């Protein structure tokens, strides 16, 4: 649910700048959902913390593919090698860790792509 909320917010924020099926939207929604879960787990019960850890693990290990399990052809447009080896979540999280959330979102909004993380 957290990822879906973040996805909707990002699509509104990037309307006209980044295609709605872009792996960038998916990856950043994962990062924002992960951050939101961190915040919620700080004040939650033991059960909520364990559930939050489970969902964070799911986000960290996810692969951006189609629902039927096939690879999404939209990834061909971006740095496929980096997305393949690092994964969308790790790539976007590294951008946020290096540049901060606001600068990363601003860069995506103006360029339609992640800021450099190397």
UniProtKB/TrEMBL annotation:
<dbReference type="GO" id="GO:0043130">
    <property type="term" value="F:ubiquitin binding"/>
</dbReference>
<protein>
    <submittedName>
        <fullName>Uncharacterized protein</fullName>
    </submittedName>
</protein>
<dbReference type="InterPro" id="IPR045218">
    <property type="entry name" value="DA1-like"/>
</dbReference>
């Amino acid at each position: 649910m957290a990822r879906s909320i973040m996805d909707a917010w990002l699509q509104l924020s990037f309307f006209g700048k980044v295609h709605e099926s872009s792996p960038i939207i998916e990856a950043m929604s994962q990062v924002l959902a992960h951050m939101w879960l961190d915040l919620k787990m700080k004040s939650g019960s033991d059960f909520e913390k364990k559930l939050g850890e489970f969902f964070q693990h799911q986000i960290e290990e996810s692969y951006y593919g189609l629902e039927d399990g096939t690879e999404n052809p939209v990834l061909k447009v971006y740095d496929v090698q980096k997305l393949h080896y690092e994964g969308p979540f790790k790539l976007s999280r590294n951008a946020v860790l290096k540049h901060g959330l606001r600068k990363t979102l601003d860069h995506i909004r103006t360029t339609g792509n992640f800021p450099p993380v190397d």
